[in-house]
Amino acid sequence: WDWVVALAERVPRTAVKVAPGVPHELTPPGGVATWTSVEGTLVECELAWPALRTADDGTDVRRARVLRAGAVATVGATHALEAQTPPPVGEVGTWLHEPDDAVIRAGLVAEVAERLDGRLLDPRVAYVSTDRDLDLAPLTVRFRVRAALPYDLAALRAHLVGAAVGHVVVKKRATSLEPDDVRRRLRLPAAPGRATVLLTRIGERTVAVVADG
User: What is the DSSP string of 101-128?
Assistant: First the structure.
């Protein structure tokens, strides 16, 4: 890394593409870091020195660029990650939004929550909830919530069977539960309905959010 910094001092119009796990503190002073994902996969980060700023960059110091299904979207922030104001925290609403991994890695969940006028379910978990139907795709994937239940396999199964759900997609965030294992153990009987189950943590509780499939 030292040789890259030394090169940039001599050649100010420098940018490097690095692995997306690069620490935020390696963003060049006055420069910008951009995390990019393609079709839901986080692929790279670009660190650009100040001389490579363009009019489109504005004063962003970190950005996320998301390419999905032919759409491209960018969100950014003009302040460092440690200066970010945390978003509000509240209950599960009518809609749940899952930020793209580029948004999360760039530390821009708060900016997405602000655009959505939403709230986190837990300050440490990147799910944003709203009461209005706002679509921020492709920066987020949104789910219409049917129910939010304290996680219990038998209770979850009873709820899905009662709703005539025969096929589920299980996703998780901030929990040790394994989606494939949960899906198998549900043993749902044949039924026409479909649903998405999002397993997450709210405080010390594990919660199953059942959404449209």
Answer: HHHHHTT-HHHHHHHHT-EEEETTEEEE
User: 114 vs 64, 66, 88, 134, 177, CA distance in Å?
Assistant: 15, 18, 9, 12, 30
Give the integer Cα–Cα distance in Å for 38 and 65: 9
Q: Is the separation of the CB atoms in 48 and 76 below 8 Å? A: no
Nearest to 103 by CA among 70, 133, 67, 50: 67
Q: Which two tokens stand for residue 169?
A: 């997609």
pLDDT tens digits for range 26-73:
898 888 999 999 999 999 999 988 866 654 556 889 999 999 998 999
Question: To 10 degrees, the CA torsion angle through 107, 105, 137, 70?
Answer: 140
pLDDT tens string 99-118: 999 999 999 999 999 999 99
